[in-house]
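To: structure subgroup
Subject: Chain for Friday's discussion

All,

I'm putting the inputs and outputs inline so they're searchable in the archive.
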Amino acid sequence: MQRIKLTFQNSHGNDLSGALELPDQRPLGYALFAHCFSCGKDIPAATRISRSLVEKGFAVFRFDFTGLGGSNGDFGNTNFSSNVADLVAASQLLKDQYQAPSLLIGHSLGGAAVLAAAKDIPEAEAVITIGAPSDPEHVSHLFADQIETIETKGVAPVQLGSRTFNITKQFLTDIAKHNMKEHIGNLGKALLVFHSPLDTTVSIDEASKIFTAAKHPRSFISLDKADHLLTDAADAAYVGHTIAAWVERYISSPSSSEEKAPTPEKGHVIVKEENKAFLRHIKTDHHNWLADEPLTMGGGNQGPDPYEMLLAALGSCTSMTIRMYANHKKWPLDDLDVELSHSREHCQDSAECEQSGQQIDLITRNITLIGEELTDEQRQRLLQIAGKCPVHKTLENKIVVQDNLTPKE
């Protein structure tokens, strides 16, 4: 599993801190996770659910809402609407740099937030709520004893968990204005509702309201014996694994330019964007693969980078050429390995360069020939043959790259 730290700006210019966790293989889809009220992206439940999904092949992005965790801004100036806007900004980040989220997952008030944000994230095909209220106004019970003070003075400090937050009058006004029944009824996406009958923070009656307001396809799963924060690791893992199994019915196969790219002729290669960062889909007449840049270069490391592919082309051609020659000669070559590296060297360090002050690309090729019965003469001849492989010859030739703009469609 890869974990990538991402920072993005919300609509108010605040830098929000997020973490994208990726499986080792190409993701089955991307999920956007919204944490519970006044929590953060790294609470145990969010972490465990996310990693259970990653184990099943999904990528999960979770972030701290404005003023929480590692995100900038003042929590006292936020409200339910700003949380929804933060989710939309996060989905745009995924769309631009990776792939738009096909899953929206929300825990507690985050569940209400993903229900409200879904209309502005058209690529999302499924929404999952976990212990969520049917209406954001439900959270006001957490500070019911301070509501009069907030209404009168405009703000009051409220103890939420182990922290104190300033809750303002505008927060109360904002949570009262949302028509969640309309959001849920017009969702237009598959819905899965998780809730525990023992939840003392958000009653299971709230799950019933969400389920009743929604249209099919809709599903409900009871989290027997679980608490609101899913503090038992087994409960969180169960949620993650169940989401992965349930959602297969409702989301499309991984969005890929493979479907949009025509099949090229033999000897031609088509490269299409998978995102607006560095992920690319490469297609030949019979094969498909991904290219990317490493994390240190701002990529997602979901495929080899261009230079790795260049070295792979030379290395595989070298190996094939040596094997073909050894088989033709019936020489006792049991196995062979080719290891390559690329660097740039100043010309004065290389006898192959005639003009000083310039640089050349240096590819080092280490060839291991395995076969106890090979003679020294045979080994030297196979080393010579390595230099005759077609890709080697191409790289040493003068190469002209001709660029043409294709007509606008």
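Points worth raising on Friday:
The longest strand covers residues 335-346.
The chain is about 30% helix and 25% strand.

D.
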